[in-house]
Each structure stands twice: as structure tokens, then as C-alpha cells.
Amino acid sequence: MMSNITCILKPCLVYCAAKLDIADHLREKSLTVNELASVTNTDNISLYRLLRALSMLGIVIEKEEQLFSLTPLGETLRSDVKGSVRSAALSTIGDLWPVWGQMLHTVRTGETAFDSVFGVPFWEYCKQHTIEAQNLISTNMEFTELVAKQLASSYDFTKYKRIIDIGGGNGSLLVAILEEAPNAQGIVFEEGYVLQKAKELIEKSSVKGRCKTVSGNFLKSIPANGDCYILKNILLNWKDEDAILILKNVRSQMNKGSVLLIIQSLVPEGNQPHPGKIHDVIMMSLYRGKERTRKQTEFLLQSAGLKITNVVKTEDPISDIIEVQIV
């Protein structure tokens, strides 16, 4: 039990490393504590104690007395590498620290902790404060980037000609999919405040001639003429009424040959362990949505005139590929 209580220290250590840009400072060569203290404007004694603790997490290594270098794990905190999780480290403990402190408020009242702290729902805050919310916006993209190639190779996308990723973030998933499906065209459908990142990533990719971006709001309408629509980690961000609305909007553009792929977990019933049960508490605190069981997911789908036709398990336990078609 004590390890469950003190484990909060680990993300705090990682947050400090990210905030001080430790990984960026160590990317080219090892530095002494005094050198790092100088470039990070920190107390050298306290910094050494932080670095020593980070070495216990495998993020840095003390090569000689008070001389530190970066490990492969620590590389993921660099700001300039593909697969970086720096934004996640900064947002989870930095931006969202007050939210976790309000979790009990959520349990007692049912009110989303994020709304209580920031005064508006999560996505509304991101739209209104694009600079302040940059780490929050980037975090979801970082998680998708980590699993994009694995998801793209877990399902046969070659049978589709026009793939539309709804709420597709920076486009990393769709780019990975189009690399696996060389004859397909793709659209990243996303809000305007996010699309610039998608445009930049697509332009640098090998699929830039087959992939474009469209700005819009999936609560209002969905692009037409897709034979494969994707909703990755979208429905779990929304309460049932909104999730059904999103599904109905997708359904309105589907025909008998179209497929909707919902990528998220189907949380098992009862006492069966599953990471989605922990992830659900994050949904409870940040958004107005939730992780759902198969029964709960089927209720949403039935309400929109859709049904599950197949479920593909992937290496990521919270990223089932749920194949859906018109009833």
C-alpha cells in the first residue's frame, strides 16, 4: 500500500526533468551537476539530489561522480525527437496538478474536476487558451504517435479507398495508416486550432500527395464519401448524449459498404483487471466522458443505428479496434 501512496513522487520527478529541459541539455554530451545547475538556473545541491533520483527511474545515469548523461528512456523527454512525451510530462503534473487535487470533489458531486478548477470544459478551455493549453493539446497527440504504427499494422486498411480520421489530431495515425495502405486517400478532420500541426506533419511525410486536412466540428457535421471513418479516443471524451450525436453524424455519411473504426478500450465487467479502469478515472476528472464496457458501447451504437461487427485486439490494451457498420 505504501508504494501506491508514494508513487506520486515519480511523475513529480519526471515533471521537474521536463520543466528544466534536462534531456535537451544532455542530448549532445554528459554534463556535471554544476554545469547543469548553471544552464538550468538551479541550486546545484538540490539538482544533484533530483538527478540521483532520476537515475533510479532510468532517465539519467551518473557516469562518474556528479557527471550525468542521458539514457535511451531519458531521450523521450527531449523536445526535438519523434516519440517525445515531454508535453505529457509537463501537462500531467504541471497544468493538471490542481485537477487531481479535486478528484474527491468529482467523486462527491459528479462535477468534472477540470470544470471546477478552470471554469469551463476541457475542450472549450483548449480552444479559448491555445497558448496556455499547448501542453494539454500536445499530450493527446503524443500518446497517439507512440502507438500509431502499431495500430496501422494491426488492421487491414488496404481494402479502403478513402479514410477519414475524425478528430485526427496532428495526423500521425492517418499518416501511419496511409503508409500501410498505398492506394488509399485520407482526410484528417479536426478543429482549426489543431490543424496546423497536422499540415506540418503531413507535408513532411511520404503520403503528402494522398492526405489532406479539413477543418470542422464533429458535433455538427462529418465529411462525406468515406468508406472508412475512424474515431480514436473520441467517444470516451464525451458524455453519452454527445457521443450518440457524434455517432449519428458519422452514420449520416455512411452507406452499407462503409465502416467506422472506433479505437479505444472495451473495459471488462466485474473484477477483471484492465488499465482502462484506471484510465477511466482520468476521463472522469478531465472530461465529461468515460471508458465504456462493451454493453455501454453497444447502447451508444444502437442509439445511432450502428452495430459492432468485429473487435481486433492490439498490443496496446486500451486501443481495441472496434469495427462498426450500419444496422
UniProtKB/TrEMBL annotation:
PROSITE patterns: SAM_OMT_II (PS51683). One of its GO terms (biological process) is methylation. Its EC number is 2.1.1.4. It comes from the Eukaryota. GO terms for molecular function: acetylserotonin O-methyltransferase activity; protein dimerization activity. SUPFAM superfamilies: S-adenosyl-L-methionine-dependent methyltransferases, Winged helix' DNA-binding domain. Residues 8-77 form the O-methyltransferase dimerisation domain. The keyword Methyltransferase applies. Residues 100-306 form the O-methyltransferase C-terminal domain. Catalyzes the transfer of a methyl group onto N-acetylserotonin, producing melatonin (N-acetyl-5-methoxytryptamine). This is Acetylserotonin O-methyltransferase. It comes from Leptotrombidium deliense.
